[in-house]
Specification:
The protein is an alpha/beta fold. It contains 11 helices and 21 strands. It folds into 4 domains: about 40 residues; about 170 residues, FAD/NAD(P)-binding domain (3-Layer(bba) Sandwich), CATH 3.50.50.60; about 150 residues, FAD/NAD(P)-binding domain (3-Layer(bba) Sandwich); about 70 residues, no CATH class. It starts with 12 loop residues before the first helix and ends with a helix. Keywords: FAD, Flavoprotein, Mitochondrion, Oxidoreductase, Quinone, Transit peptide. Its EC number is 1.8.5.8.
């Protein structure tokens, strides 16, 4: 069989495309990729950029609105990770393998997966450019690109991870090193850091600290350990109710808090960590460590920096209540890549997805969005191998709790919610577009309580 030209097919383009796909699959034509390019569909009603939690969730929701074949997800990664589980992986309570699925298995059937990176946005022309300089056009665009880890901003990293005693629960490459460093701990400082940038899951840097404390107690090593939380912030947690509870735990477990301390260098060959005092710029202090858990600086993905869809800091510039772009009404953002002033968590994405679903529905009908995202986010603060403080709060930093109990207390039930229920909700409800956060249940429980 020779090369088939689209113009000489004598049949509809979509039929020709199917012939091309079949031929390529059978390996019967070497030149088909040349002409197949012209048959490729480059326009979609909805294009979702990013195949993380926000992207997969919104592709599932939008497919139900505009139909199969009309939604595309642009995502280069073949693997998708449930990252909230990495706290437990780093603490030895879960296996890394249980946090991963193939991207292909999660893309809703009928949604086109474009396995590529986005190179640039041109919202004035309703188009984006991807790898191979290909252009994808859209009617509606949802940006769900997540956040970028910036280990390279700390001198001595990421090459320092080649040495033992150092790990980070924020990367698939280094989360198991955290558990190894904890198991190998003998005597000295165990240091846990929090950077001077926005981060995803702001509770994670101290969750692993509490697990490490519990592990060292269980193995009889705690008396030889000095646990330090060196944070660039001036508080242990942004919401006072939970901060007060955490300060009690820190005091009770003899953990040393050092505020306004920002990690700027790691000398892994000497097991030294260098911190800058943010209250006295230029003043540094060197700490010896036996174990070091690094939370990296983070920022917007490179493609968003200086992009027309982003604010001056590089975050997607959306209305904080509707998630619609402030300048381009057919562009929307969700999750960690946006400038929404709330904590960047999977729970926040769930609540945002429900609002964004309603926003887009109304925009598609040429109506003004009316649903309002209140900034709801949740952080299950793991404080032991069987205890969790379930922090839930809104834009104003006010508790927005689901259960009719005091959630600032450590509870075994909340640990099971975090370790067992939430992964199930994520894989089987959120990513399929059926979970929009606990808002409706909170109202029901409040009524029941009254």
């Amino acid at each position: 069989m020779g090369s088939i030209g689209v113009m000489s097919c004598g049949i509809h383009i979509h039929q020709c495309t199917n012939i091309l796909k079949t031929a390529v699959h059978r390996g019967s034509c070497r030149n088909l990729h040349v002409t197949g390019r012209f048959a490729a569909k480059e326009y979609y009603d909805v294009v979702v950029v990013g195949g993380g939690a926000g992207g997969i969730t919104m592709s599932a929701r939008l497919k139900r609105k505009v139909g199969a074949g009309n939604v595309a997800v642009i995502e280069p990664s073949e693997k998708h990770y449930y990252q909230p589980m990495w706290t437990l992986v780093g603490g030895g309570a879960k296996q890394l393998g249980s946090s991963v699925r193939s991207t292909e298995s999660l893309i809703p059937s009928g949604v086109k997966w474009i396995k590529s990176e986005v190179k640039s946005f041109d919202p004035d022309k309703n188009s984006i450019r991807i790898g191979d300089d290909k252009e994808i056009n859209y009617k509606y665009l949802i940006i769900a690109l997540g956040i970028k880890l910036q280990y390279e901003k700390i001198k001595g990293l990421p090459e320092g991870f080649a040495y033992p005693k150092i790990g980070s629960n924020y990367s698939v490459k280094t989360v198991e090193k955290t558990w190894k460093a904890l198991q190998d701990f003998k005597k000295g400082n165990a240091i846990f850091t929090f950077p001077n940038t926005p981060v995803k899951c702001a509770g994670a840097p101290q969750k692993i600290m509490y697990l490490s404390d519990a592990y060292l107690r269980k193995t009889g090593k705690r008396a030889d350990a000095n646990i330090l939380f060196n944070t660039s912030l001036g508080v242990i947690f942004a919401v006072k109710k939970y901060a007060d509870a955490l300060l009690e735990i820190v005091k009770e477990r003899d953990i040393q808090l050092n505020f306004k301390q920002n990690l700027i260098e790691v000398r892994a060959d000497r097991q030294e960590a260098v911190f800058e005092n943010l209250d006295k710029p230029g003043e540094t202090k060197v700490y010896q460590y036996e174990m070091l858990h690094v939370t990296p600086p983070m920022g917007p993905p490179d493609v968003l920096v200086n992009s027309p869809v982003s604010d001056a800091a590089g975050w997607v510039d959306v209305n904080k209540e509707t998630l619609q772009h402030k300048k381009y009404p057919n562009v929307f953002g969700i999750g960690d890549c946006t400038n929404l002033p709330t904590s960047k968590t999977a729970a926040a994405i769930a609540a945002q997805s429900a609002v964004l679903d309603k926003t887009i529905s109304l925009v598609m009908k040429n109506q003004n969005p009316s649903s309002k995202y209140d900034g709801y986010t949740s952080c299950p603060l793991v404080t032991n191998y069987n205890k969790v403080i379930l922090a839930e709060f809104d834009y104003n930093g006010q508790p927005l709790e689901t259960f009719p109990i005091d959630q600032s207390k450590e509870r075994r039930t909340m640990y099971h919610l975090k370790a067992d229920m939430m992964p199930f909700l994520y894989w089987h409800m959120l990513l399929k577009g059926y979970w929009g956060g606990p808002g409706p249940y909170r109202k029901l429980m409040s009524l029941g309580l009254k």
